[in-house]
Amino acid sequence: MGDELAKVIKEYSNNEIVNKSLSSGLENLSITLTAIEEYRNCEVQRLEAKVIGELCQYETICKHAREELKHTMNVREKEMSRKKVLDKAKERQPFNRQQITYAESELIKASAEMSRTAKSLSEQTEFFERRKLQQLKTLLSDFVMIEMTFHSKAVELLTVAYKQIANINEKADLENFKRKLRSPEKQVSTGISARSSSIASLMNQQSPIRDDNSMNLGKIRSPENTSAGKGRSSSLAALISHSSSKDDDETSGSDVTEDEDHSTSEETESR
Predict the structure, then answer these.
(1) How far apart are the first and last CA of the chain?
(2) How many beta carbons lie within 10 A of that of residue 186, not counting itself?
(3) Which of 64, 75, 83, 178 is the one with CA 20 to 30 A from 132?
(4) pTM
(5) CA distance 165 to 155
(6) What angle do CA 151, 156, 159 make, to 5 degrees?
(7) What local confidence, expressed as pLDDT, does residue 81 receive?
(8) Measured distance CA(20)–CA(102) in Å, rounded
């Protein structure tokens, strides 16, 4: 259950995005509670090994003790029955010496067995009681020490948890909540515009070649809208006019030459 509580607090702190102080405090608290549960797990394991395991052995020990006690009671009953047989034999047949002697011998055997059994039972009972006292003292001491160790660590960690909870600034969280509640759209639009400008600047930095190509393509498509296009058009017009004038000069020159040749031929014929 402690682990489940720490898990729920951790999930709540992860989902808390407005109250930063509360989110931080809950996250630290979940870590502290998890550490406490680790110590609690160690406590349970040590109790199972040093206390519960030793106490579980007494189930078998007590079972053997009951069996020994039952055997002793059976021997006791046997002795009592032998004594009754002897008393009856003396009452009914006081002169039957053989039967009385046999009954007396059986009683002596039963009494001797009873004595041995009683002595053994006494020794076993004393041993059981001594062992029970010693182990019970040891087990209870171990139990108290294990509990003290856990609770001292738990108090230490719970003190840390108390400080973590006390460090939650509810006033600052409330003011932050009110501030975000007043202007959520402005913050959203500001965040979007900042993000858009960042993306635009990033794209401009990453693709300078693309921009140059686009500019050149625009110039090719509309040269009359640019100074370079205008210069190129004027140069082309000048070249065309220069070629026309050159062709006129060549035509006029060829006409003069033909006239000169015609006059020369006439003079030659007259001569």
Answers:
(1) 143
(2) 9
(3) 75
(4) 0.53
(5) 15
(6) 120
(7) 83
(8) 100
Cβ neighbourhood burial of 56 (10 Å; 0-12, 13-18, 19+): exposed
Helix axes 184-206, 208-221, angle to 10 degrees: 80
- Tokens, residue 70: 């039952």
* Helix/strand/coil percentages in the chain, nearest 5: 95, 0, 5
User: Which phi and psi (to 5°) does residue 234 adopt?
Assistant: -65, -40
- Summarised one tens digit per residue, pLDDT across range 32-86 is 999 999 999 999 999 999 999 889 988 888 888 888 888 888 888 888 887 877 7
CB 10: neighbour CB atoms within 10 A? Answer: 17
Tokens standing for residue 208: 């300078």
Give the closest residue to 82 by CA, choosing from 107, 113, 102, 116.
107
Q: Which residues of the chain have pLDDT under 50?
A: 187-240, 242-247, 249-271
Q: Encode 248-267: b = buried (16+ Cβ within 10 Å), e = exposed.
A: eeeeeeeeeeeeeeeeeeee
CA distance 26 to 6: 9
Burial class (CB in 10 A: 0-12, 13-18, 19+), 65: middle
Is residue 19 classed as helix, strand or coil in its secondary structure? Answer: coil
CA distance 118 to 60: 21
Q: By the 8 A CB rule, do 164 and 29 touch?
A: yes
Residue 17 contacts residue 173 (beta carbons within 8 Å): no
Residues 21, 172: Cα–Cα separation, whole Å: 8
Question: CB within 8 A of 20, min separation 6: which ones?
Answer: 173, 176
Residue 186 confidence (pLDDT): 52
